[in-house]
Automatic annotation (TrEMBL):
Gene3D superfamilies: Fido-like domain. It catalyses: L-threonyl-[protein] + ATP = 3-O-(5'-adenylyl)-L-threonyl-[protein] + diphosphate; L-tyrosyl-[protein] + ATP = O-(5'-adenylyl)-L-tyrosyl-[protein] + diphosphate. Residues 55-199 form the Fido domain. This is protein adenylyltransferase. It is an enzyme of class 2 (transferase). Keywords: ATP-binding, Nucleotide-binding, Nucleotidyltransferase, Transferase. The lineage of its organism: Bacteria, Bacillati, Bacillota, Clostridia, Eubacteriales. Coiled coil: none annotated. Its EC number is 2.7.7.108. PROSITE patterns: FIDO (PS51459). InterPro entries: Fido, Fido-like_dom_sf.
Amino acid sequence: MPYTIDPSSADCYPCTSVLINKFDLRSQQELDRVEAVLVTAKAAQWEESPLCSTFDFEHYKAIHRHLFCDLYEWAGIPRSINISKKGTQFCPADEIPRVSSAIFRRLAEQNFFQSLSFDDFVDAFVDFYIRTNELHPFREGNGRTQRVFLAQLAQHAGYQLDFSCIDPDELMVATIWSAQGVDTMLRQLFREMLSPLAD
């Protein structure tokens, strides 16, 4: 689903909402198809052999760059325009450096959620999910970057994260509600998606 933006500064082809891309695809449907194939393969590649494990904003950007470098020149580079979606206004572009620094500093201070009980882990994990969703640092590909990062973070803390076991529409609704301060549904979904890794 496209973001709400100012088309004059959107890095799109003239008179369209199609992002300028390395394949010069001018149809959104065609771009979506190519992007889905490429990014799915790149995500599997990262999950099998992560290229970074610092769990800071540089790590987060490295995932985005890995996933989207074949498509966009700006892969891994935070956006310079403001965006919103379904009534949710994401972090203003000029605030991304400050806000991302605070989010990832807090993650490090919490020792990347290691050695927590399951209930405490879910609480901390959901809070981090909400904060990175509010950040939405990239022009496109935020959700996919977030999912790859979260799966690696969960594994680092001794948990498996399985997004396939829930309805993606339910996750979208729960995420929208969490942006309004209601995170009950989101917490329940993450309780279903997370499980301790087998020893």
